[in-house]
Design brief:
Number of domains: 1
Shape: globular
Strand content: 35-45%
Radius of gyration: 12 Å
Number of helices: 2
Number of strands: 6
Largest sheet: 6 strands, antiparallel
Structural class: alpha+beta
Length: 89
Amino acid sequence: MIIRESVTSSNVVSIGYDAELRLMEVQFRPSLSGVSKVYVYEHVSENEFARIKSAESVGRALAAIKAYHPAYVVATVDQAGNETRLSFL
């Protein structure tokens, strides 16, 4: 499991990175239902992750890489902060 760190962003709650697997996890702000989604982006380099993490606008930096990195939802987080990992069979 990738450990995420909080970021200052209007769209993103937290991000984390696994250098060995080159995976980046991003938790977005909750929708109107109060549930937020956690996405994994594949094939992200350490340099890309560092740029996103330190960007003035994390959301804008993420938007710049979305076209190049496959992403999928791996978890949801409810209003109480309980994370539910999704299973893929």
